[in-house]
Structures are given as structure tokens and as C-alpha cells.
Amino acid sequence: MSINSISREEMQSLTGLWDELNVSPTVNSSKQVKSAEARRRIEQMRDIRESGFTLEEARELGLLH
Question: Distance between CA 55 and CA 61 in Å, rounded?
């Protein structure tokens, strides 16, 4: 099959399929973003506690912002 044997309508229908595949994912809700940030902070605090650092030491080392 050569490229010349494909009609313009067929090509346009195929490009429509590609557009559907390239749709960006939906934007996360602000509640989901806040929840994810809270989980990261909790994990960060656990890591600091497990390492034996105090909060002051963690701040001095730049582990907390």
C-alpha cells in the first residue's frame, strides 16, 4: 500500500485518533495535592526521627524548610 492510495478523509480520521491519545491527564484537585504534600511532610518527619536528628539539627542541615 502506498501513501498515495490513502484518501484525505482516511488521513484526517487517523489524526483524530492521535489527538485523543495525546490528551493530557486531568489536573489533580487541590485536595489531592494538599493530601500528597502532607504525606511527603509526614514521611520526611519520620525519616528525620529515624536518623536521630532533632528538629533544630534538621533545619540547620537544610532537611526542613
Answer: 10
